[in-house]
Amino acid sequence: MKTAGMMKPVLAALVLYTGVNASEFPYGARPLSVGGAYTAVPGDAFSLFYNPAALTGGKTISVGVDAGAAYLFSGGILSNVNAVLDLAEKYEGIRNAQLNAAMIDVTQVMALFDSIKKIYEITQPGKGIVMKMNGGVMLQMKNMGLGVRNYTATGIKPQLDLGFFLGGVSTGPVPAPHLSAMLFGAARRDDGGIVFSTGVNTNPVPPEMQAAQQTLVNVLTWLQADLAALGVEISQDLTLDELANAMINGAIENGVSYADIAYAVDHIIELQPFIQFIMNQLAANPDPFTNNKSGLLFRGLNVTEVVGSYSMELPVPGLSIGTAIKFLMGTAMMYDYQVFLQTSDLTLMDLAQMQANLTRTSSAISADLGILYELPIALLKARAGIVAKNIIEPEFEMPGNTGEKLKLPRQVRAGVAAQFTPMLTASLDLDLTKTESLVPGYFEQYLGVGVSFDPLFFPSLRAGYYRNLAAENDDAFTLGLGLNLMVVQLEVAGAISTQSVQVNRDAAVP
Q1: Which three-class secondary structure state does DSSP give residue 415?
Q2: What mean pLDDT comes out for the span 156-163?
Q3: Distance between terminal CA atoms of the chain?
Q4: What is the rounded distance in angstroms from the CA atom of residue 433 to the CA atom of residue 431?
Q5: CB proximity list for 272: less than 8 A, separation 6 or greater
Q6: Highest mean pLDDT among 165-174, 311-320, 394-403
Q7: How many whole angstroms separate alpha carbon 150 and alpha carbon 139?
Q8: pTM of this structure
Q9: Of 247, 229, 299, residue with least CA distance to 109
Q10: CA 143 – CA 190 distance, rounded (Å)
Q11: Could you give phi then psi for residue 497, rounded to 5 degrees?
């Protein structure tokens, strides 16, 4: 509504945006509700951040206030994390076995190797977690705009340390645990030799477990051979049949079902190529599992952005140009969270403490440049727009005096919008550039479409969809509702991914 001398605030109340492999998080509830397709939509305060040229021909005065949050799991990382959670349930038994040079049962062996494989897969490019939050205040006065926005992006990238100790002598008061001891029930003598633990149950397994026992003997045969090839000597105090009995009996004594034991043995066979791969990795990095440095690398950036924008019509009919000058104050964060060495659980509340202790603040200047053109199409108001954001790529110094910097990359985005009737508008946006996120190897390039229905005396309804063209299974549907409350326009929007991943037996993350 355009009314000379009247100001109508737009309050954008944004619900939490959830998704597995979800897409980019647009600024503002109204742009989000149409899939982020807002580059060619003219006339309100949100244009300040989408396309400054769209300020031309807009409302006399409008104010926008918005806030939102989002998270995404990239590269199918949740399925990997779910497997690692299985290891957490068995970790105490594995840890005790390492500290006491005691044998672990066959299900713990399977969980150990399977989880190492899943952790290894997590470290591959493109897998990680990105969390985003933003909020701001925007003022549009005809063809000028002012705004302040704060946004935070945090990337979480898993790291893997395959440092297990295969053999050798410890000089400390407690022998350094090693993989051969855990698998074969061996303990060290004072002179560095290896003897087998006396507390293992080598009695014959129940008849229902005899087939699994014979399969496990075959597994131990090639596993022992692989260890020997790496120079790890295994004592012959017990036969492989007795070892297989002990590992299965140990699982039974730990309350594991026969079906789960049989599955564990079969799955170890499936893992043989990977086990042989990590054996070579372990030999090159002899470090105890109890000193394992696997963990999560947090890289984050909090930016407060002050923006001034101006747009103008050019002599060409229907053509407008606009620019936004930005001053940015950024705080970069880096934190290496080592899972197995941590003494307490990590919670989201810890992120605030990380920001206080492991951050560095710096500033930068940048600019956006946009163009909007009203297409000469009869009986239809159609516009095309293009915007280049961060023409001068702002950089922010990372903590630790390493010289590393986080950069906001240059982005180019184009869009079209068509107003079929005064109440019905459709829009489409496309990123012309592909950018890398805070998770290394995870790239973003979005296509967004949306439709808006704005009746005069009823709530506005909006829907949209957007997809990350640079990743697989990375899309989301959006919905929005606009309420005209006389002096206030209230916008509510949300989005949800089309994908889901089962993370436990009772629930799934959508």
Answers
A1: strand
A2: 65
A3: 37
A4: 5
A5: 219, 222
A6: 311-320
A7: 15
A8: 0.65
A9: 247
A10: 83
A11: -70, 160
* 25 in Cβ contact with 14 (< 8 Å): no
Q: Which residues make Cβ contacts (< 8 Å) with residue 159, sequence separation at least 6? A: 123, 293, 294, 295, 296, 297, 336
| CA dist., res. 461 & res. 448, Å (int) | 17
What is the CA angle 376-377-379, rounded to 5?
A: 130
**Distance in angstroms (rounded) separating the CA atoms of residues 30 and 482:** 8
**pLDDT tens readout for residues 40-82:** 998 778 888 889 999 886 667 777 777 776 666 666 666 666 6
Q: Inform me whether the pLDDT recorded for 199 exceeds 60.
A: no
- How many whole angstroms separate alpha carbon 483 and alpha carbon 308? 28
| Count of C-beta atoms within a 10 Å radius of residue 252 | 18
Identify the burial level of 480 via C-beta atoms within 10 angstroms of its C-beta, where 0-12 means exposed, 13-18 middle and 19 or more buried: buried
Q: What is the DSSP letter of 469?
A: T
> Which domains does the chain show, CATH number per domain?
8-75+126-160+294-509 (2.40.160), 78-121+162-291 (no CATH)
CA distances in angstroms from 234 to 41, 165, 213, 218, listed in the order given: 72, 14, 20, 16
Provide the residue type at 337 as one letter.
Y
Number of H helices, E strands in the chain: 10, 22
- How far is C-alpha 486 from the geometric centre of its chain's CA atoms? 41
| Residue 232 scores a pLDDT above 60 | no
Phi and psi for 237 in degrees, rounded to 5? -60, -30
- Whether the CA torsion 235, 239, 245, 249 is positive or negative: it is negative
The two tokens of residue 492 are 């509510």
Cβ atoms within 10 Å, residue 236? 9
CB-CB contact of 2 with 60 (8 Å): yes
The pLDDT of residue 171 is: 30
Sign, Cα dihedral of 265, 269, 271, 272: positive
- Of the candidates 340, 314, 310, the one whose C-alpha atom is nearest the C-alpha of residue 322 is 310
Lowest-confidence range among 24-33, 227-236, 305-314? 227-236
The three-state secondary structure class of 162 is coil
Cα–Cα–Cα angle for 304, 348, 342, rounded to 5 degrees: 125
Burial class of residue 338 in the structure, from the number of CB atoms within 10 Å of its CB (0-12 exposed, 13-18 middle, 19+ buried): middle
Tokens for 331, please give them. Answer: 């705080």
Q: Kindly report the number of other CB atoms within 10 A of residue 313's CB atom.
A: 15
Q: Work out the pLDDT band at 392, boundaries 50, 70, 90.
A: very high
H helices within 235-284, ranges in order? 240-253, 258-270, 272-284
The tokens of 277 are what?
Answer: 């791969």
In the block, tokens 């307490």 appear at 344
Percent of the chain with pLDDT over 90: 19
Extended beta strands in 160-218, E state: 186-188, 194-196
**Tokens coding 467:** 């997809």
